[in-house]
Amino acid sequence: HRFNRRYDYPVVIFNDGLSEEHRRQIVHSSDNRIWFAYVDDYLDVPGMISKDPTRRAMLDEVKWSMGYRGMCRFRSGTIFLQPVMGSFQYAMTLDTDGYFPASLEHDPIAAMHAGNYVYTFSHLLPDLPGAVKHFWEYSLMYMRMKDIDPRGTEILKQFVREDDLQWNYQLYMNDIEIVQLDWFRSEPYQDYFRYLDSVGGFWLHRWGDHAVRTIAVGMWLPKDRVYEMDIPYGHQNYCRCSSAWPNRTCTREGDLGGQPAKWWVCT
User: Fold this and answer.
1) What pLDDT, in 10s, does the model give residues 236-246?
2) CA dist 32 → 25, 90, 121 (Å)
3) How far apart are CA 175 and CA 78, in angstroms?
4) In Å, how far are 80, 81, 115 from 72, measured between CA atoms?
5) Could you report the per-residue pLDDT of 40-50, keeping only the tens digit for each?
6) Which DSSP letter does residue 160 get?
7) CB atoms within 10 A of CB 198
8) pTM of the entire structure?
9) Which of 69, 194, 225, 239 is most buried when burial is the number of CB atoms within 10 A of its CB?
């Protein structure tokens, strides 16, 4: 109600089997158009892992669930090719635990379109090295194969150290993001995704979609095609009220007697 009530952008909910009762609850709780898109293959582990005893055993060494790893792979590449996305030019992603702690005073999707941006993010945070094990090494191999300079763009220089060409683990946190879908459906991006997918890193190491997004954007986009949206936003331990609410601060709902207790609100 703090954003989309005014715009009525269609809301697409990808799922692998929501019950009719849950679908009805969601529809009745929203003023917007809700589309449910069933995804039946996001937990399909490739044969090169499931049929190899050594690799199959490695699946149990990762603390993140198979469902979470499947979601990371889905959001890294195949989400953009889903039939339900075919009629859209842009898509805003919002995690189930991402939300707006205050009303948005402008439409970031309209701002993205007006500025002809390809990628829009809210904030940067570092990832844990253990969560992206071997990701940068394989990405460097890809860059060498494609003759891409690891520090060849302004964005890559922001994320890759000059002295040793190592990634600094900073990421575009894509629990909220806006993407221009044609670019993410394009061959360069999808080729990079297929390469990463071919080595099984999403399943064996939990490579995150935010890491894939960050390095892909860095390899191919100039800085003026990336937009940092200034909006109130809350997710887990992160919160900001944005320049639209300069006199407000982030407060936990629980401190005000509200629910959910750990969610933020700008007061």
Assistant:
1) 999 999 999 99
2) 13, 17, 23
3) 17
4) 13, 15, 29
5) 888 999 999 99
6) B
7) 11
8) 0.94
9) 69
pLDDT above 90 (res 1): no
Arithmetic mean of pLDDT, 229-254: 96
pLDDT of residue 130: 86
* Helix, strand, coil shares, percent, the chain, to 5: 40, 20, 40
Note the pLDDT of residue 253.
Answer: 96
Spatial neighbors of 127 by CB under 8 A, at least 6 apart, are 169, 171, 208, 210, 211
Name the residue type at position 7.
Y
Between helix 209-220 and helix 187-198 the angle, nearest 10°, is: 140
Residue 41: the pLDDT is 86
What stretch of H or E contains 28? helix 20-28
Peptide bond into 260 cis (omega under 30): yes
For residue 156, count CB atoms less than 10 angstroms from its CB and return exposed for 0-12, middle for 13-18, buried for 19 or more: buried
Average pLDDT over residues 24-35: 94
Question: Nearest to residue 125, comparing CAs of 175, 75, 87?
Answer: 175
Residue whose pair of structure tokens reads 């601060």 in the numeric block: 249
Per-residue pLDDT of 173-196, as tens digits, reads: 999 999 999 999 999 999 999 999
On the CB side of 72, how many CA atoms lie within 13 Å of its CA?
A: 25
First to last CA, the chain: 17
